Amino acid sequence: MTSLATPEVQAAGPVAADAGRISLADIAKAHGVRFLLATFVDMTGKPCAKLVPVEAADELENGAMGFAGYAAGLIGQKPQDSDLIAVPDLASFTPVPFIKEGLAIIHCDPYVDGKPWPYAPRVILKNTLARLANNGMQAKVGAEVEYFLVKKNDDGTLSTADARDDSPRPCYDARGVTRMYDHLTSISDAINGLGWGNYANDHEDAAGQFEQNFNYADALTTADRVVTLRYILNILAEQRGMTATFMPKPFTDRTGTGLHFHLSLWSGTEALFPAGGSPDDDGRGLGISSLAYSFIAGILDHAPALQAFLAPTVNSYKRTGATTSSSGATWSPRKASFGGNDRTHMIRVPDNKRIELRSGDGSANPYLAIATAIAAGLDGVEKAADPGAPSGPGESRPDAHLLPATLLHAVEALRKDPVILSSLSGDARIGAYYADAKEEEFLSWHNQVSDWEIRTYLTSI
Fold first, then answer.
1. Residue 208: left if φ>0, alpha if ψ -120 to 50, beta else—which one?
2. Residue 349 belongs to what H/E stretch?
3. Residue 312: which of 450, 449, 431 has the closest Cα?
4. pLDDT at 397 (0 to 100)
């Protein structure tokens, strides 16, 4: 598991555009782009897009690209509702010639009837960041994107794409990395070509599992990049006959897939988390400010409800509920604890510049996960909350919240937490809509008879 470095923040995208001086069509033509993937995600994180020829870029920019929102997915619409209009954010323009020559992705904010649609995840994050800005702060975020490379067998089971990658403890294995050299370097070249600053590519803790890291940036840019990278990984893996999956727990006996976020708050160019002086100056040995401790306290206070966004699928809780794996560790927290440079906690404080939120998994929607985590932390800041003393290695406070055991438990926690329920564009109805959808997802799974039930109950009586 790679620790995130903290170099200078990258530009908002490969092209920094001023919509008042240059059009989307001009940007596209200057980069030899012939087609645009006008992209947004629904609440599950599914990327939705229309392929727009550059000749129609002005129409896209002027709000002429409509989507039937109900058909797009979980995004708060009914069949009779007005179209979602995809409004492109020019700063997110990202050429992807390594996917298809002449193709670019541009992230869009869905509008309905001339207003930003409050159920749209990118809009939700922007609303949270606006609230943060009203408090004189900005958020910078790094993300660790883990994934498995697998193949689907004729009988429907999964196997590792690299058949020789079968060690019970393959983490950092140089041979596994070398066998996947072509895939890993193609992704690294893509990331660096986009200016994101790829600085490490490694074999993760489970057979078939990898992680590729890039520099942190402002919160919205990082969320866009997670969505873009997932798309890039999916397509380039498919081109090599593999499937890149972000499913939290595709194999029962292996470590699951996380999506860890490194969070920090800033005021202009001033970092707000360092306490200054030596690590002992804060009285707790971590060298962070009282604001940072309050931010941590807010996340810990709301941890059970946050898991509905950080671990948003039925499968998520096969990861967080695991007691061990073939490697001997799960790397997945079970309690809402915090500590120093210790990966057993929900919140790790590796240095005085940032915190690492470790309870998210690969199925998390980055916009919603970041938005709700910031909302929780900001609640702690506004209340001057105190998380108490940090826990020691492998320990947790007796009063630390247990993280939910299932998606249904997370939904119940969300419904009981008015702060997080109202954190989606400031409207509790949106939180309730999401909770209802996730309860339905849980019950849909629960109503399926599994092989385990057949084995356990068929002749048990």
1. left
2. strand 347-351
3. 431
4. 81
Residues 397 and 283 in one domain: yes
Residues 222 and 74 in one domain: no
Pair (139, 173) in one structural domain: yes
Average pLDDT over residues 446-454: 95
Q: Are residues 195 and 55 in the same domain?
A: no
Tracing tokens 């309050």 back to the chain, one arrives at 294
CB 63 within 8 A of CB 143: no
Residues 111 and 132 in one domain: no
| Tokens representing residue 219 in the block | 């919160």
Q: Are residues 89 and 158 in the same domain?
A: no
What pLDDT score was predicted for residue 20?
52
Q: Are residues 231 and 208 in the same domain?
A: yes
Structural domain that includes position 391 = 128-451
> What are phi and psi for residue 142, nearest 5 degrees?
-115, 155
| pLDDT for 330 beyond 90 | no
> Are residues 31 and 173 located together in one domain of the fold?
no
Instruction: Please state the pTM of the whole predicted model.
Output: 0.93
The beta strands (E) that lie in 130-245 are given as: 138-152, 158-160, 198-203, 209-214, 217-218, 243-245
Q: How far apart (Å, rounded) are the C-alpha atoms in residues 358 and 336?
A: 10
Domains of the chain: total: 2
What distances in angstroms separate CA 188 from CA 96, 170, 183, 194, 216, one per listed residue?
13, 21, 9, 10, 16
* Angle between helical axes of 366-382 and 219-239 (0-180°, round to 10): 160
